[in-house]
């Protein structure tokens, strides 16, 4: 599968326009809709057509899509604008098309425009592939369902960018640790948006996504500051080029995993819940969050029903299994993720293994409808913690 991943990365880098999204139940027809086929966000209309669709009429276009550099489909781009509909889709795939089944929910679709009527399509199916793709094209899991930017687009508030630039100008180290990056991103964002603890408590689901985006913007700015002069200088040999590229990619990977924990930490502080991070449990396992903390967990007399576990993973399509062996005293393992959509079969397996997902409120619609009630939003989860802790 590494070969497909590398082809997908190269296709994005060489395409006119590229787009990515997590495959949802709505795409596969699992929600019971009349139309299956990949739904494309309205803000990405330029991927499909030269002009934006207009309400009151439909429009369509037929193209060739080369999938995984393995086979082609003659597919249809269509905009539905008649009646109450206002959406873009890709339809018409040959019989036996392998990427629109229930098991594909949660996979990452990548579509690249190579010419006016010729596209390349890829589907990545594991967390490792997805995260390596995000790292290579310089986006995060939260930047899917939109056009992949060819370069950093300065769209944030001027005050936010000025704050970021001041931070970079005053750095005394080559590259700050993840915790410092996350902290500075929040400080700049909160200052630019006059955000207080009360504002965080009003909408924690929105705020954690905003912080994740802000921190990723800051990371890219620091990266450009540190490496722009280096890549503009001719390399002595291929070995030096590869060494530099690996250094950049490895730093991106190491950053992504921990920043989510740092932002969750700040959310829980704003709500004044009792918890600890990185508590060592059986077998020297280290869960991300234990509520109320290590002392209670280590006390055999403490009521196990009042112990709460929360893991944090950017994507969870197969990595969710890693948390099932952590914190043996706690039967239900809560897992916060930015993943958009998981198949019914995987959700059933998670439930059987005692895993309950926690996702940003706006991401819940990407999961099969019959499972949404059992998925917590971040606000739901904090309410549950407060209830258990009697607050």
Quick structural summary:
With 391 residues, the chain is α/β, with parallel strands linked by helices. It has helices at 2-14, 25-28, 127-137, 158-169, 178-192, 197-202, 204-231, 238-271, 294-298, 344-352, 378-388, and strands spanning 17-22, 38-40, 59-67, 71-80, 87-91, 108-115, 118-124, 146-147, 276-277, 289-291, 308-313, 333-337, 355-359, 376-377. Helix 5 crosses helix 8.
Q: Strands, helices and their partners?
A:
Blueprint: H1 2-14, E1 17-22, H2 25-28, E2 38-40, E3 59-67, E4 71-80, E5 87-91, E6 108-115, E7 118-124, H3 127-137, E8 146-147, H4 158-169, H5 178-192, H6 197-202, H7 204-231, H8 238-271, E9 276-277, E10 289-291, H9 294-298, E11 308-313, E12 333-337, H10 344-352, E13 355-359, E14 376-377, H11 378-388
Distinctive features:
391 residues; alpha/beta; DNA-bd_pseudobarrel_sf; eight-stranded mixed β-sheet; At1g16640 B3 domain; 3 domains; six-stranded mixed β-sheet; single chain; endonuclease activity
Written description of the protein model:
With 391 residues, the protein is of the alpha/beta class. It folds into three domains: 2-147, At1g16640 B3 domain (Beta Barrel); 158-270, Restriction Endonuclease; 276-388, Restriction Endonuclease. Helices cover 38% and strands 19% of the residues. Helix 10 (344-352) links the parallel strand 12 and strand 13. Residues 152-156 have low confidence and may be disordered. Keywords: Endonuclease, Hydrolase, Nuclease. GO terms for molecular function: endonuclease activity.
């Amino acid at each position: 599968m590494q070969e497909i991943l590398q082809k997908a990365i190269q296709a994005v880098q060489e395409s006119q326009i590229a787009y990515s999204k997590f495959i949802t139940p709505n795409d596969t027809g699992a929600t019971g809709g009349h139309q299956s086929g990949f739904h494309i966000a309205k803000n990405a209309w330029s991927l499909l057509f030269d002009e934006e669709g207009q309400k009151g009429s439909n429009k369509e276009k037929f193209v060739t899509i080369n999938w995984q550099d393995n086979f082609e489909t003659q597919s249809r781009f269509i905009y539905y604008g008649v009646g109450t509909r206002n959406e873009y889709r890709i339809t018409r795939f040959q019989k036996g098309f392998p990427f629109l089944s229930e098991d594909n929910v949660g996979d990452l679709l990548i579509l690249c425009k190579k010419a006016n009527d010729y596209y390349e399509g890829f589907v990545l199916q594991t967390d490792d592939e997805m995260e390596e793709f995000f790292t290579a094209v310089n986006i995060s899991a939260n930047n899917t369902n939109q056009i992949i930017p060819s370069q950093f687009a300065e769209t944030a508030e001027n005050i936010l960018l000025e704050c970021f630039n001041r931070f970079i100008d005053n750095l005394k180290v080559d590259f700050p640790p993840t915790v410092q990056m996350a902290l500075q991103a929040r400080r700049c964002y909160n200052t630019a948006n006059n955000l207080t603890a009360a504002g965080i408590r009003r909408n924690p689901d929105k705020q954690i996504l905003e912080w994740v985006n802000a921190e990723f913007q800051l990371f890219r700015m620091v990266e450009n500051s540190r490496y722009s002069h280096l890549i503009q200088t001719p390399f002595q040999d291929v070995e030096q080029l590869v060494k530099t590229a690996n250094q950049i990619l490895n730093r991106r990977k190491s950053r992504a995993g921990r920043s989510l924990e740092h932002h969750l930490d700040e959310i829980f502080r704003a709500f004044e819940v009792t918890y600890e991070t990185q508590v060592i449990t059986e077998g020297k396992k280290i869960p991300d969050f234990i509520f109320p903390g290590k002392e209670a967990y280590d006390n055999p007399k403490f009521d196990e029903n009042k112990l709460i576990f929360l893991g944090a993973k950017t994507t969870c399509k197969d990595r969710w299994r890693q948390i099932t062996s952590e914190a043996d005293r706690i039967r239900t393992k809560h897992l916060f993720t930015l993943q958009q959509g998981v198949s019914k079969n995987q959700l059933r397996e998670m439930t059987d293994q005692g895993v309950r997902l926690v996702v940003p409120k706006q991401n819940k619609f990407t999961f099969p409808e019959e499972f949404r009630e059992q998925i917590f939003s971040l606000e739901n989860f904090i309410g549950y913690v407060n209830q258990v802790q009697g607050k």
